[in-house]
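Working notes for the structural subgroup meeting. M.R. asked for a predicted model of this chain before we commit to crystallization trials. I am recording the input and output together here so anyone reviewing the notebook later can reproduce the run.

Input as submitted:
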Amino acid sequence: MNGDRGFSDVLQDLLGNLQKLVRSEVRLAKAEMREEATLALSAGVWMGLGVVIGLGAGMLLLWSIVFAVALVVPMWAAALLTGAVTAAIAGALILTGRQRLAHVRLGPDRAIDSIKEDVEWLRQSTR
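Returned structure, recorded in token form:
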């Protein structure tokens, strides 16, 4: 057997390479999911800030109505203006978070594509 390898050697090498390939694909999928989770967290923070500020805006708008009806004095105008500005800020924060969330992919697309390529390569090499 000068230079010829036995079937068991070839099979052992193939299984070892397949094992390495699967491990590297799993590492790729983990890294991709970690990256997407970071983007989703950032988007969630922006949206959360928008919701909190929006709740404050709603409270201020309600108080401005109360002051307008109960007292009918210029103080309600200040509360109304403050509520409107707060609502505008909340809207801008929510839109920013929504735009960031649009860029988040929920699945490990690159890892899945890579695994599909590997399976196709394996099919071709075993024919």
